[in-house]
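SAMPLE LOG
Freezer: B-3
Tube label: C17
Construct: single chain, 293 aa
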Amino acid sequence: MDNVFEIEFDAAARLVNPAQESVLAQALSASPRHIVVLAHGWNVDMPEALDFYSGFLRAFAQVDADAARSAMVIAVLWPSKKFSRTASRLLNLATFFTMKDRAGKIGQDALNPLIARLQAQSSPATHFHLVGHSFGARMVTATVDGACQLRVSSLLLLQAAYSQNGLAVNFDGRGTNGFFHRILTERKVGGPILVTHSRRDEALGLAYPLASRLHGPDAARIGDARDLYGSMGMNGAQHVDATCLKLGDRYEFRGAPGQVFNLNGDAVITSHGDVARPETTALLSAAIRQCAT
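STRUCTURE (predicted):
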C-alpha cells in the first residue's frame, strides 16, 4: 500500500530518522480523513514487524477496501526483541519487564508528542485511530494517556499485554486505580475503546500473570478474571462499564465517548499473535465508519 509510512524509535524513545516525521507532515497535505497508527508487539525484529503490518493491512483491505485505500497508515517500529536466542521464551523476565517499560516510554514520551504535532498540522476533521498488539497495545494506550492532549477517535487493543484492571478505578475496593484510568475518567478517547480477548492466548493466560505476580502477593486463580494479575488480552477490560460482544459479530459501536467494548475471541483468536485477520480488522473498519455517522 502506498499510503503506509514508517516511523522508527530506538530504545530511548528517540526517532531513529527524524526525516520520517517530515515525510509524515508532507503526507498530511493530501488531507486524509482517517489516520491509522499501528504498533506491533514484542519479541519481533523489524522484518517480522513489517510482515505483521502487511498481513494486518491485507486483511483490512479484504474487509473494507475503501477505508484501506483512503486511510493514511503510520506503522510504528520499535526495538521489541532484546535477546535473539532467548527472547522467544516469554518468561525471560529481564526481557519481559524491559519491553513492558519500553513500550510505555515510547508511547508516552515519543509517540504522544509526535501525534500532537501532526494533529496541529492536520484538519480538525481528521480522525486518528490507534491500534496496538500485545505490548504495542500498552504503547498506544500510553500514547493516549500522555502529556499532550490528543484527538483520538478510536482505540483498538489486540490481545493487550497489560493489566485487565489498567483502565479501572478502585478495582480492589481499597482505592487502587489502574495505571491508565484517566483515559476513561477524563474521556481521552472520542469513540470506542475496543478490546479483544481470548482464552486460547496461552502467553497472556499463563506467562503474563506469572511474570507480573513476582512483584506482588499471590492471587486466587492464575490468569482468569479473578486473578489480580490477569491480563486484558485474556479476560478483557475488568471493573469498567463495558459492553461484551463476540468477535466476528456485526458491530455498531455507539454510545458515550470512550465506551469500552470487550470482544470475546475464544472462537476466533487461536494464539497471542493471531490478530492479523478479517475479524479483527473489521473492528477497525467499524470504528472508521462510525465517524461518518
